[in-house]
Amino acid sequence: MSWQEILTGQAPEYLGTALSVVSVILIARQNILGWPLGILWAMISAWLAFTRWQLVSDGILYVSYVPLQVYCWIAWLRHGSAQEAFRPTWLPRVPQVVLLFSALVAVVLWGLGVKYLSQHVSWMTAPALLWRDATTTVLSYFAQLLQARKRMENWIGWVIVNVLGIHIYLLRGSPVYAAQYGFFLILGLYGWWSWHRARKEAIA
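RESULT FIELD:
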């Protein structure tokens, strides 16, 4: 089997899925090694999103995940391990409301921006599933940054992203990545439970 056959087949999807699942499991367990594995997954996923699925927003998201995950890696290194004082917490009520409003505005601006660019930039392909893709992209940014600070709200964002992700990738003909988001959904619920337990233990 040639490299071209490997790259055009489903091998990259399987590899990306494996890396992503292990990465999320490690992060749910507050293990810092999840971040470098997430960087590899983001690189593979960006290539697939642009070249195979024409999911422009997702492609941009995956590319930007690389520096984002580097940031999260550094943030966790700076704040210490799960055994130290860096514990999961909820935001106060007012910042939660501001966060929700900001996310809604960002989704609208992102979707309009991608639509405009696809109509005026020659190299950009026409976006598929524009608003669903924009929603998963924007919420992923918010969730990733919240995760870097170990805010519990990140898991709510990931649950929404994962439900939409299953739907999007089934429509785009990638059952492998749809299954990946199904795993993410389960792992997101596990991550919330794991962080919730760690938070309760820290309070007790």
